[in-house]
Design a protein that fits this description.
alpha/beta; Double Stranded RNA Binding Domain; 8-stranded parallel β-barrel; 40% helix; disordered N terminus; 3 domains; 3-stranded antiparallel sheet
Amino acid sequence: MEWCPESLPQLTAEQMSTEMTTIKLYDTTLRDGMQAEGVSFSLEDKLAIAKCLDDLGVAYIEGGYAASNQKEMRFFEEVAGLGLKNATIVAFGNTRRAGKSVEEDASLRAMLASRASACALVGKTSEFHVVRVLGCTLEENLKICAESVRYMKQHDLETLFDAEHFFDGYKANAEYTLSVLDVVAEAGADVIVLCDTNGGCLPTEIYDITKAVCDRLAPLEIGIHTHNDTECANANSLAGVRAGARQVQGTINGLGERCGNANLCTVIPNLAFKMGYDVLTPERIKSLTEVSRFVSEVSNVSPVMNMPYVGESAFAHKAGLHVDALRKSKKAYEHISPDMIGNERRFLISELSGKSNVLAELEKARISDDADLARRILRRVQSLENEGYQFEAADASFQLLVKAEMGVFKPSFELIKYHVNVEKRRTGEMVTEATVKLRVGEATEHVVEEGDGPVDALDAALRKSLRRFYPPLGDMHLFDYKVRVVNAKAGTAARVRVTIESRDKESIWGTVGVSENIIEASWLALVDSVEYKLHKDPVV
């Protein structure tokens, strides 16, 4: 039995009443997300992500801190030419500085110069931050916040007021914190966003305080902005919505300062599938996995394998008992269908696998339900794993193994020999050269290539020797390379497992090789990678 929309858990009466309530999505990946350690977006990166987010259908894209540098300002100039269809671009900045007028404040001027149609003004709402950080009186801060909002509204900008440190400020001095919201509401703020800036609150606190604000300021739109320092950012966002917030701020993959922000890749499906809110269309939610992986690639951050919904392991099943149940009903160990989020179901093959895992993989590959074949494959997998192989991240090697056991695998070439030479010259320069000699049909190829290291050189030589016969190899490349010592106690004679990820324009696949010699293990994984590509995209 496959999942279908009707098979989702039934919503409660309270949840059903929210189905027509729209939650606006505000993405701050390009500003708060870029504050994550190790993340830096070029102008081109930011434009590409903005286009991706617009296609996803978010309501707001925070473009960056307009006053910070020339690159940020250029983004606002360039994004205007992208023809975005769904999102409003937001310029981010501070309320005016103490002692400055709104007309001469650099941050306010930069937001106006950005020509964005909306702005996010960050203002102090915590007594501690007003006195100790901003260094002014509480009354002066009220004036700063009100004047800044009024000034931006006079220039026809949709104005969102980010109430910085709001929850901490409320817990310390609720009266003053609420007075800040009162003056910015009176000044004309379109949205007031409650920020758990330090990320230290729990869902019960977020709910109670947000509900108090929503009751006080209704019908003004309230937003929620949470950080993940207690790993509650996603839960806190949902609690805020349940309390009455109608805008959720977050980032793709939870990127952000310190421990990150609320992760829209989790918040969106939770709001839609678990709480019944109108967030994005089902078709757009199906693109979330692709969006998550695109942002990971652009930000040069390895994807989190076990990220809920969009992670590669989110619907990966390893235990034989689980897989056996899933073959009978997909609801047995999945809370939604992976198709709903644009992800896919995976059955992991390992020493923990039962026959069901192998049969499930055969069914996925549209191969007949052959129990005898499954037993042979399972014995082969268990034998190889005893030698140090692991197929969880080497789906391509497993598929080639299945073809071999079925008797339908035909090698695309025959190795005659390979040789790798690593030379360090007197100047300190390192030179690596690989020679590969192989046979394709009746033809023999003998090529030499240099590389940044032994594996890079081998990879280049192998594909160069085959490209004349198999042109599709021209659009594939090695994407990731990992080495693991299998039996470390054996010292320098230990076996090593090499796992390689390769990709072309359409897909990514993993292969594995094991040997006492790291070069040979790498060669085995490289050969599987090439063979998989040629079986996937055969030359006709």
